[in-house]
């Protein structure tokens, strides 16, 4: 009972001291510039962080005299930070409480809290905060890892900086990044290229809709999930990538259908096969608001001989069968006010002979919400039908 009374008296004295010294502390503190919130961050402002991530570097938090701020010592007691409390008493200095320089999305332990999804570190109202993600967050697939052919091997650069060189004898799946370029295709490139030529080996997501910093290849799955990385692998560089989709609902806003028809001189079975490939190449494509996207770049189309394919009369092999699914796609997107897709014509022959049916066509989403292209086929041969739906994601 005596010890309890002594503890109570001690705390009471600290409170009295805090009240007495508070005006003096404020007067002295006003003579020195306040610590800037970004000075205590454990990572760069703009970096992506998840809830539970430590975002305050304790070692960077400025200490002040406990005489000037005994109220800080009282806070340590009520927060249960007894070690820091005794340290403050023994050293005569105390850390500035996190709540003085951080917002509500950062806990008293300096970790991100109170939100779902990939947030990012920033400063608001002179406090360090984690900004929760918008309902939709997107960026663009841009080069990060570049291979440059040298006389005796390969120089690998990440974000413009050389990270290693690989000799010709050491080249393998374990030394050459192969998420986007198979080692077999890399070897083909290397054997045909000249010294100084380069190849993109890995990609980051940059130019985010909310202004956050680029996310490197090794962080994409951690912050946005494996599905985003899988999506990136199917589409060419420069493609918009929906990194976070917090939609609460989705609805079909347009649909269209077209049929292959019969042109036996161009092999109806191969035409139908190309029609299916077109649908596969566009199915699942997500286009964020006010961006344009092509279809997938890992789609193979099959050549059909056409004597009129070239202007010299010699003919050539082209991917006949792309026009019917092209008309289906074109109709579905133009019904909702999107412009004629770039790389398409407005006529019956919707895809130019020289165009690649997926990577040379771009659908421009002029709306304020993300959309997804869904395509599928029914039937076979000349009677095959190609369906297109446009789905809109809503908050």
Description:
By secondary structure, the protein is an alpha+beta fold. Among the domains are: 1-32 and 62-95, no CATH class; 247-395, no CATH class. Helices cover 27% and strands 27% of the residues. The chain contains nine helices and 18 strands. The protein has helices spanning 2-29, 70-78, 82-91, 98-101, 183-192, 217-224, 226-234, 268-282, 323-334; strands at 48-49, 63-65, 93-95, 119-124, 127-131, 136-149, 153-158, 161-167, 198-206, 240-245, 249-259, 285-287, 291-293, 304-306, 316-318, 363-365, 371-378, 385-394. The strands form six sheets. Strands 6, 7, 8, 9 and 10 form a five-stranded antiparallel sheet that branches. A four-stranded antiparallel sheet has the order 11-18-17-12. A three-stranded antiparallel sheet has the order 1-4-5, with no helix packed on it. Helix 1 packs across helix 2, helix 6 (217-224) packs across helix 7 (226-234) and helix 8 packs parallel to helix 9. It starts with a helix and ends with a strand. The model is unreliable at 27-32 (pLDDT under 50).
């Amino acid at each position: 009972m005596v010890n309890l009374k002594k503890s109570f008296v001690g705390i009471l004295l600290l409170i009295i001291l805090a009240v007495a010294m508070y005006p003096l502390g404020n007067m002295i503190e006003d003579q020195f510039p306040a610590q800037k919130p970004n000075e205590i961050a454990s990572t760069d402002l703009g970096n992506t962080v998840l809830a539970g991530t430590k975002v305050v570097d304790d070692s960077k938090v400025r200490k002040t005299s406990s005489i000037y701020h005994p109220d800080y010592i009282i806070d340590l007691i009520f927060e249960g930070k007894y070690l820091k409390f005794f340290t403050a008493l023994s050293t005569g200095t105390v850390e500035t409480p996190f709540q003085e320089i951080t917002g509500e999305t950062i806990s008293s332990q300096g970790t991100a809290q109170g939100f779902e999804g990939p947030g990012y570190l920033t400063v608001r109202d002179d406090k360090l905060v984690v900004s929760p993600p918008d309902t939709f967050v997107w960026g663009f697939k841009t080069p990060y890892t570049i291979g440059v052919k040298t006389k005796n091997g390969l120089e690998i650069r990440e974000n413009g900086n050389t990270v290693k060189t690989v000799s010709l004898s050491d080249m393998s799946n374990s030394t050459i990044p192969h998420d986007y370029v198979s080692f077999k295709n890399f070897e083909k490139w290397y054997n045909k290229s000249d010294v100084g030529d380069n190849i993109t080996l890995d990609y980051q997501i940059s130019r985010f809709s909310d202004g956050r910093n680029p996310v490197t290849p090794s962080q994409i799955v951690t912050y946005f999930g494996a599905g985003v990385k899988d999506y990136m692998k199917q589409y060419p560089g420069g493609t918009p990538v929906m990194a976070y989709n917090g939609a609460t609902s989705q609805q079909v806003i347009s649909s269209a259908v077209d049929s292959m028809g019969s042109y036996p001189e161009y092999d109806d079975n191969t035409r139908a096969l190309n029609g299916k490939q077109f649908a596969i190449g566009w199915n699942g494509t997500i286009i964020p608001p006010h961006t344009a996207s092509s279809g997938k770049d890992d789609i193979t189309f099959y050549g059909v001989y056409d004597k009129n394919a070239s202007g010299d009369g010699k003919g050539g092999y082209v991917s006949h069968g792309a026009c019917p699914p092209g008309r289906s796609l074109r109709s579905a997107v133009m019904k909702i006010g999107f412009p004629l897709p770039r790389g398409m014509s407005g006529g019956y022959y919707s895809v130019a002979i020289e165009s690649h049916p997926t990577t040379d066509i771009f659908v421009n989403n002029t709306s304020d919400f993300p959309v997804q292209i869904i395509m599928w086929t029914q039937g076979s041969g000349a009677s095959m039908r190609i369906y297109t739906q446009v789905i809109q994601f809503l908050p």
